[in-house]
Amino acid sequence: MVKYIIKRILLSLLILFGVSVLLYVLVRMMPVDFVTQKLVAGLGSQGNDELIAERKAALYAYYGLEEHPTLLGVWNGYWKWLFQFLSGDFGTSFKTGRPVEKIIFDNMGVSFVISFISLILQLLIAIPLGIKCACNQYGKLDYTATVLSMIGISFPTFFFGSLAIKIFAMELGWFPVSGLDSGLFGVSGWTKFWDMAWHLVLPMFVLVVLNIGSMMRYTRTNTLEVLNADYIRTARAKGLSENTVVYKHVFRNTMIPLVTTLAGILPGLFGGSMITETVFGIPGIGKTAYDLLNAGDIPFIMAYNMFIAVLTVIGILLTDIMYAVVDPRVKLGK
Amino acid sequence: MADKNKSHYITAKELRRIAKENINATKAFEKRKKRKNVESEYVTQMKDPANIVEFEDLHTYFYTDAGVVKAVNGVSFSIPAGSTVGVVGESGCGKSVTSLSLMQLVQGPTGQIVSGSIRFRTKAFRRDEKGNKIPVYEMTEENGELVVKKDAKGKPVHKKNELGGNLYETDEKVYDIAKMPTEAMRSIRGREISMIFQEPMTSLNPVFTIGNQLNEVAFLHIEGISKQDAKARSIEMLKLVGIADPEGVYKKYPHELSGGMRQRVMIAMSLLCNPRLIIADEPTTALDVTIQAQILDLLRDIKGKINGSIMLITHDLGVVAEMADFVVVMYAGKIIEMGTAEDIFDNPLHPYTIGLQKSKPTVDGEVESLYCIPGFVPNPIDMPDYCYFRDRCEKCKKECAGEYPRLVKVSDTHSVSCYLYKEGNAND
Predict the structure, then answer these.
(1) Which of A87, A283, B209, B362 is at a distance of 20 to 30 A from A136, taking alpha carbons?
(2) What's the ipTM?
(3) Alpha carbon distance B299, B317 (integer Å)
(4) Parallel, antiparallel, or unpaired for β B334-340 and B111-125?
């Protein structure tokens, strides 16, 4: 077991190296880079051409970029970035001028709270609902849940988010349109807390509705498959009540494929949700990433994506370990 | 479907009609299974008190999208106490569905017991007005009076039954399983009728240990049993079915055992509560021949020990010849011949039974090629109204064009459903 985990971690390092190479090359190949954007924003298109060219060259040199990336330039840039990264210096954001790790950790909190609570809600609703639907296949509940979950799966986040804002914030006025707080000053901690919770209801609602569908369908399909298994007939033949059959014998077997979905949870929890946060104007890691990605902020993009990559690799490793925990037939090793 | 060429083609209109009819039919049956407190509706009397199970005109249908499949279509036979009854027939003739009907395990909502009755003699719990079981307590004499014995905490002490569980007041009753709601059926399943399935490889839950799955039965049906007693009982059963290392197997998961071992575990599980009837649904089909013989020996052994009956379902005539006292031959959902094992093997009457005997491989005597009954079983959705075997029969007569032949008694024990034979006349 320990040997297996060590082996997997060593393998993960190799994967992360590959990921970083791909990422860096892709980021450097982006059609619009940070310098061009900064110049367009700062100087506009007017001005002395020569002056602009001079300033451009100076900026490219300052940020260690090239106007037309060459293989050698990217190669050198990558190694420079890698050695800095490995020595613990994750770089300074071009746009904000702050250390990248500070940006990530400062903005992670609110994203984590949103993702965590909506994940718990998702699990609490999707799994029991999936099992219930499977037990009453083609019943009223099954059809209703299927139709609703299909609608949830099909809606794009930005559309459903905007729709929710339109209905619940603008028409009904139950929740604020966007932001994290109402900018209250001099109020007690609890008032502030409730204010923030009030702001987070809509984004969480959107996240839950959009993600519940796939998990519920997944649970339903797996449960249906297990319900037809021979050992479930054996369990019934013992005289067990339907509840024991479903929640003991069926559930444990349904859990096995569900564990696979664990792999995506970890990066989802800490990485934020880019589109939802942008739609609702929540200053979480997702929105920050979206803004800085648009700006072509290479140090941040690299660090953020490496962070997600590390979380994904850990998530997959945890999933494999969980498999062995849930299913006695799986033996880790070799 | 008058047009024969179109018999496998269903129009969209017909499909909708079938789906609608199916929903209406199955809904009513599912509702009937969920009734509560209706004991009076399913208490009946046995026709012959020597029997433990009596099937009478049992119909079990499957409401499929292509139409109604009459898997069991009017089956009547009985299982005398302490005997082994073999049910034989080719695949798909309804023998497994008959046994599943007896356990009420036919997969709903598609499969339903439509009519007929399955009478089973049961040791039913006597219930008080609230529906609770009435316990029997230990009595002691105190000051010359009989009073309930109490333990240190002042709770009354239960009298124990032979399995080490709490004793409750019971009555010998006869229930009609075909009419019982599922909830009431649960106290019969596993306690009085237990079942050994065809596929030992998949019949045990892969995520629980053998011990866990065995104890579950004990905890469920032997009320008040302690954890140690349940474990002891499980290990005793594993020993009884000839497992060499019962303590080791107790802790193992099903995937760590071979097919034969798993089937032994299944048998151990079925024996745990001393059932009156064990249904063995092709218990040896998935096993190789040497293990088959061992499992059959084991079953015969056990029948003597628990003093119960066995309903043995198989398509292997050799197995039946070895094990059964009575034999029922089924074809396309109906019984075509039944009698004692001697009747069926020494004097088979129905052309199908004769064909079955002929198609059995033998060791002695050289046979060029194995006999094969010509033709196919008719389409189960669209059964003809004459004898189902007519189109394959070598001895077909003029009368065979008429309605389905009645079961005629050719001797006290032997009956056959064929126009070749008349009441009391076996030599035709």
Answers:
(1) B209
(2) 0.87
(3) 17
(4) unpaired
pTM over 0.90: no
pLDDT tens-place string over residues B343-399: 898 889 998 998 888 887 777 767 678 888 888 888 878 788 888 888 888 888 888
Residue pLDDT, tens place only, B210-219: 999 999 999 9
Bridge partner list, B113: B60
**What are the DSSP calls for A187-250, one per residue?**
--HHHHHHHHHHHHHHHHHHHHHHHHHHHHHHHHHHHHHHHTSHHHHHHHHTT--HHHIIIIII
Nearest to B207 among A238, A240, A252 (CB): A252
DSSP string, B349-410: -SHHHHHHHHTS--SSS--SS-----S-PPPTTS--SS-TTGGG-SS--SGGGSSPPPPEES
Contacts of A231 in chain B (CB under 8 A): 202-206
Give the residue from chain A lying closest to B204, CA to CA.
A231
- Rounded CA separation B190/B266 (Å): 12
Out of A235, A240, A329, name the one closest to residue B206 (CB): A329
Q: Please, what is the average pLDDT of chain B?
A: 86
What per-residue string of b and e applies to A214-239 under the rule 16 or more CB within 10 Å gives b? Answer: ebbbbbbebbbebbebbbbbbbbbbb
- Residue B125's SS3 state is strand
Is pLDDT at B249 greater than 90 in this prediction? yes
Cβ-defined contacts of A243-246 (< 8 Å, 24+) = A246/A131, A246/A135
Nearest CA in chain A to B275: A238
Q: What is the pLDDT of residue B38?
A: 77
How far off is chain A from B195, nearest CA to CA, in Å? Answer: 7
Structure tokens given for A77: 């840039």
Q: Tokens 């940020």 map to which residue?
A: A63
What does the block give as tokens for B379? 């389409």
Burial class (CB in 10 A: 0-12, 13-18, 19+), B425: exposed
- Chain B neighbors of A235, CB-CB under 8 A: 205
Q: Does B216 touch chain A (CB under 8 A)?
A: yes
- What local confidence, expressed as pLDDT, does residue A60 receive? 78
Could you list the pLDDT tens digit for every one of the 334 residues in chain A? 788 889 989 999 999 999 999 988 888 887 777 777 777 666 655 666 777 777 777 777 777 777 777 778 888 888 888 888 888 888 888 788 888 888 888 888 888 888 899 999 999 999 999 999 998 888 889 999 999 989 888 888 889 988 988 998 888 888 887 777 777 677 777 887 888 888 888 889 988 988 888 889 999 999 999 998 999 999 999 999 989 999 999 999 998 888 888 777 888 888 778 888 888 888 888 888 888 888 878 888 888 888 899 999 999 888 888 888 888 888 876 5
| Residue ranges, CATH 1.10.3720.10, chain A | 100-326
B335 pairs with which residues across the strands? Answer: B330
What residue spans define the domains of chain B?
A: 205-272
DSSP H or E segment with residue B120: strand B111-125
Domain formed by A100-326, architecture = Orthogonal Bundle (1.10)
Chain A within 8 Å of B220 (Cβ-Cβ)? yes
Closest to B173 measured CA to CA, from B279, B40, B275? B40
The amino acid sitting at B5 is N
Mean pLDDT value of segment B298-312: 85
CA-to-CA separations, B101 to A215, B72, B193, B240, B308, in angstroms, rounded: 36, 9, 12, 29, 20
Residue of A230, A233, A327 with shortest CB distance to B207: A327
Say if the Cβ atoms of B191 and A236 lie within 8 Å. Answer: no
Local structure of B143: helix, strand or coil:
coil
B220–chain A nearest CA distance, Å: 7
Distance, CA of A264 to CA of B73 (rounded, Å) = 53
